[in-house]
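In response to reviewer comment 3 from the previous cycle, which asked for concrete evidence that the modeling workflow produces usable outputs, we include below a single protein chain processed end to end. The sequence was submitted unchanged, and the resulting structure tokens are shown without manual editing.
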Amino acid sequence: MLEELDIRNLGPIREAAIAPAAGMTAITGETGAGKSMLLSAIRLVSGGAAESSRVSAGADEAWAQAIFALSDDAVTSEHSGDTDDTGDADDSDSGLTGAAAAVAKAHDAGVDPEDGELFLSRTVRASGRSRAVLGGKSVPRSVLGAIAGELVTIHGQTDQLKIAASARQREFLDRVAGDEAELAAYRKAWDALTAMDERLERLRSQESSARQQADYLRESIDHINRTDPQPGEDEELKARRERIENAADIAQGVGSALGALDASQVDVDAADGASAVELINHAVTSLRAIRVGGTFAEQADRLESINADLGDVVFALSQELGDEGSVEDLDQINGRIHELGDLTRRWGPTLADVLAWRDKAAFDLEDLDASPEKVAELESERQTLYAAALAAADVLSAARVAAAADLGARVTEELGSLAMLGASLEVRVTPRDKADNPLGPYGRDDIAFLFTPFEGSPQLPMGKSASGGELSRLMLALELVAADTRGGADQTFIFDEVDAGVGGKAAVELGKRLARLARSAQVIVVTHLAQVASWADAQFVVTKEPPDADDDDLGVVTTIAEVNGETRVHEIARMLSGSESEASLDHARELLKESVL
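The workflow returned the following structure tokens.
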């Protein structure tokens, strides 16, 4: 609820602070005293347009601040929603409304309630620039508008056009219907359907370049798969080719080396002399033949070790003989190297890179593949999703139709008690024809609030068929029915001009209904009628004071003060008869005594 409204240098109001009651608060005062500036302050902190002409004469800037007290449930609801990763950020989709939605939006802007309070303020400079502040942090004024829109509803002549919008009427009907579950089920089905539509649209509207890219990827993947490269295969083949190309040199060199090391591994008869192994064996035998102790045995051991190493070398070299491959092998190897080289030139530089490119291309191809088979598959899925969304829309529509009939009947009944005999409201829910693709983000219904201001008058959409005062009373009737149906609204309702054209017994009934609404929500009413103000839990009087002779630069100054006790009795008496005679005072006391639910 609105806990406090502070104003400085706004029009004729130099400084004022108002602490409205939790129930009903009346703002009264003579015509032209400046009561409208209170609504201007509320609109200002609600992100409304900043007009430098509203800055008080001689002041550099105007300032207004609204402090909203939040329920523990509102703060808890926001924190419990922190784990929701829907991202959207759309509180209508998240199910949060009122103060809970305001807290969530403030959190998104980087501000959390402090001691259960939110501070919204706005500064307007005489130069025309303005600054919006939320909880001490500068924010775009649209943020203030979004948050205040969840906390405050103004029913005044300039604000009634909002309810004329079909979206607002749908939101109001859904609130009264209590169809959150049905709406959530439909939204889930709708989101799945629209996601499929977007996917199909992407496939159908692919440009020529996208199709060419898909063809290129498909052909490239097929080419790589046919070649079937293995990591490192090209390097192994190149090494093998080098051996075949140098086979003669390898055979000659290995043969000569083996003949020198161990002639028994080659043609022994062709050996010109003893081999290295034979000579070392002869040396070992000679050293072992020496019978004198000393280093001879040690040197013989070393020679035997050398001979063993030579034996390993001889074995390794002997394995290389006859393994060079044929000319036919060389042709096959060169052909394979050429195939692999083509791959690495196009998608390399290595075969591992080629394989990685192929795997990624396969994923890219899935998104680009607009083949008729794929489109047909998705269109079949879409039909299933559409049927599910249409069924959910029918359930939602049925809930709205039932609530609409009840809402219209009850509002019409309320209007009779608000000096609007013969006036009626019809809430019309018209499901769109299935043949015309009827579904939208919020169902398949066209919703219209049709108002008849008096008997015999044509039925017209709201906003086009009533005066400002009639619309204010119509909105009061709507809010009363909504409160009776759904309980507390956790909101502040501000009514202006609701008493226009009302008097006598109808005025008493009007005040009584405002007080009834104040049982479940905070109500602030700007009124000229004592029969309305008498029902308020708190009353503030706006007074216009003439210029001070010592400071004429200030001009007319407006003050705001709460009245209680006998002071309030005098104000009610003034409103009743324009005087404060004993008869008027007695009448005021009697009226205050009777204005109790």
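Residues 256 and 266 are 9 Å apart (CA to CA). We consider this sufficient to address the reviewer's concern, and the full set will be provided in the supplementary archive.
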